[in-house]
Design a protein that fits this description.
By secondary structure, the chain is mainly alpha-helical. It contains 16 helices and no strands. About 75% of the residues lie in helices and about 0% in strands.
Length: about 400
């Protein structure tokens, strides 16, 4: 009897070991299949398969429009209320009266804030490669205000033409300008841009939260990588995985202040914080409140202070002189920088001043860099949406194979 029992136990152990091996091999085959599917999708880009990419992009656009239309219909009460408010504002806007002064002021402020919020959303929402709107728009705006403030000796620029064009105020002004006066001048647009970046972090949070509550497999590669990372947490060796796990542990254990810390510093892994908060069902206002405070207040003041200090008058003069000290090419490089700064100073002191006829090559290069980055951003959106449709087709094919 004892011998028979021992044999049964050995058979059960062998069967268990075989089951584990079969499970591991099945997991490996699934991962290999996902990796192959991902490689196929990544090859679907405009410069390799332009016709297929554009075709898939249009189909994915139609699917997204249908989904958004259904979501709006489900929230038709809110949509109707927004339409009523827009109609009332339109009536107030078109009716003559004393209120027009306030309406125009509100319109100007609303459009200015919406512009920077929109740029902030584009910077972090995850469309394509993301548009680096701080480097392309907000940073240059703060730099131009800083240079103008030191040249004019004041931040009280006449409106209009500010903010479309910066012109020095007429009459006597104070020669001294403080760091805090420049910071207060650009505070609104900087905070609005930061608020936009906080809004752009919401999609990963909502996606992970909905997936956790429903138990469904979400159509998102970042979330799949997050789940794989949690499964392989003990055997993590590379620096990137350990950094991701560090962010995940900080957010999960510290909560509000952990999210605030991650949002307050330049952090390329913050998408993981949103996915972590959604996966562990962190309350919405805990996540969004900490993200908004961190990005729109703390982080924006750090970035703003850095740009203002970098473009302060004495720092810029030192940078131009350092460029001139470079052997051989220094004087040739220093000349266009000096000409550009001189042209900007001349424009500040002429209310109707326009760009000089011989446009400086620095401004020409910057305009072309902005154009190239915007074009690449649009192309990356087309590629990303085409790859999303390709993933739909792959999932449909795999589900059909399972049913057979």
């Amino acid at each position: 009897m004892a011998a028979n029992g021992a044999r049964c136990e050995q058979r059960q152990k062998r069967a268990g070991a075989k089951g584990k091996q079969n499970g591991k091999s099945a997991d490996l085959s699934i991962r290999e299949r996902r990796q192959k599917d991902k490689e196929k999708r990544m090859s679907l880009v405009l410069w390799r398969k332009p016709v297929t990419t554009l075709h898939y992009f249009l189909l994915e656009t139609l699917i997204k429009l249908k989904e958004w239309t259904l979501k709006l219909w489900q929230r038709r009460g809110t949509v109707f209320l927004i339409l009523v408010l827009c109609s009332l504002f339109s009536i107030a806007y078109s009716t003559e009266g004393r209120h027009q002064h306030y309406v125009q002021y509100l319109e100007k402020r609303f459009l200015w804030c919406a512009y920077w919020v929109g740029l902030g959303i584009l910077s972090s929402v995850g469309l394509g490669t993301g548009l680096h709107t701080f480097l392309l728009y907000l940073g240059p705006h703060i730099a131009s205000v800083t240079l103008a403030a030191y040249e004019c000796g004041s931040t009280d620029f006449p409106e209009p033409p500010y903010p479309d064009q910066i012109v020095c105020p007429q009459g006597e002004v104070e020669d001294s300008i403080s760091l805090f006066s420049i910071m207060s001048k650009v505070r609104l647009e900087a905070c609005m841009w930061g608020a936009g970046t906080a809004i752009g972090e919401l999609p990963p949070y909502f996606m992970a939260r909905a997936a956790r509550q429903s138990g469904a497999d979400p159509d998102d590669e970042d979330y799949e990588e997050f789940e794989e990372m949690l499964e392989q947490a003990e055997g993590a060796q590379d620096f990137v995985t350990r950094a991701k796990l560090g962010v995940q542990h900080l957010v999960q254990k510290v909560g509000f202040f952990g999210i605030l810390t991650c949002a307050s510093i330049p952090n390329p892994l913050f998408d993981l914080a949103g996915i972590t908060c959604g996966h562990f069902l962190v309350p919405f206002w805990t996540f969004f409140g900490a993200t908004l405070i961190g990005k729109a207040i703390i982080k924006m003041h750090i970035q703003k202070l850095f740009v203002i200090m970098t473009f302060s008058k004495h720092i810029v003069e030192q940078m131009v002189s350092l460029i001139g000290s470079v052997p051989r090419v220094g004087p040739a490089l220093q000349k266009p920088f000096s000409q550009y700064l001189e042209a900007q100073r001349n424009k500040l002191h002429h209310a109707g001043g326009s760009a000089p006829a011989d446009e400086n090559w620095l401004s020409w290069v910057f305009e072309k860099v902005v154009l190239v980055m915007v074009c690449y951003f649009v192309i990356s959106i087309v590629n990303s949406m085409a790859q999303s449709y390709a993933k739909r087709l792959q999932q449909l094919r795999h589900s059909e194979e399972k049913t057979k």
